[in-house]
Amino acid sequence: MNKLPLVIYTHTDMKDVWPSFFGQLNKFMPDYKLYVCVNEIDKALPENCLQITYDDSKKYTNRILESLDKIDEDVILFFHEDMILYSNPLRVYLEKYYEYILTDKANSIKLLYAGSGGTKSEFEDTLVQNDLSKFSIQPTIIKTKTFKELIENHLELTIYEFEDAIKLNQKDFSATNGIEKKRGIFHYDSFVFPYIATAINKGKWNLTEYQTELNPIFEEYNINPFDRGIW
Question: I need a surface site. Which of 25, 58, 75, 128 has the fewest CB within 10 A?
């Protein structure tokens, strides 16, 4: 099993997204340890995952903190269930990034580049820092301890309030090879972790930006996008 554990945040109101998300995850990362943070135990989740429950009555940041308190891992890759993989991650980089976090060369490594420009790190050509390299709710490698400390300073916040409140740390980086395709206004495709960012927008399937990637997924997992709605 790979040494980088995956921690997924989800809710049962996203159950219709689970077959495609976990199906793609099993296709491309079947040997990674998997934790799923969810509001209640559900048999529809993969048998190979460790289900971690949180109190649904709490705000987003408190739910995450409650979940992290139950996970005994030094370094994790954290993301949400609507960030669906559509191709193989570059494991060599995931392994390198894991070591950078473990040895405190980096505080966090976001697997998606956003904004423009930035200062390249002294130890890795594919890591840069700009104003949008601060921690956000995108696939990010981070120490569990660091993540918990970040949330402890931002309790009782919604997901949007949390992202707005976070400040850039001098060791927060984004991953980029400099030639990724721009997607939307602010961000680029991830060269190391090819995922849909994000598949659900305002409660509906994000076909505006990801029709090419989503259509084959709909077909493979027998999803009628009109059941949830399209955006």
Answer: 58
**Residues whose CB falls within 8 Å of the CB of residue 226, separated by 6 or more in sequence, listed in order:** none
114, amino acid identity? A
**Alpha-carbon distance 83 to 93, whole Å?**
19
pTM to 2 decimals? Answer: 0.97
How would you classify the pairing of strands 2-9 and 32-38? parallel
Q: Please compute, for residue 76, the number of CA atoms within 13 A of its CA located in the half-sphere on the CB side.
A: 21
- Report which of 129, 24, 141, 28 is spatially closest to residue 93, judged by C-alpha positions: 141
**What residues does 120 pair with on adjacent strands?**
128
Read off the pLDDT of residues 180-221 as tens digits, 9 standing for 90 and up: 999 988 899 999 999 999 999 999 999 999 999 999 999 999
For residue 45, which phi and psi values (nearest 5 degrees)? -75, 155
The CATH number that applies at residue 53 is 3.90.550
* Cα distance between residue 118 and residue 132, in whole Å: 9
Range of the domain at 159: 2-228
Instruction: Give the separation between CA 213 and CA 228, rounded to whole angstroms.
Output: 17
Structural domain total, the chain: 1
* 12 prior amide bond cis, ω within 30: no
Cβ atoms within 10 A of the Cβ of 39, count? 16
Tell me the two tokens of residue 149.
Answer: 């400390």
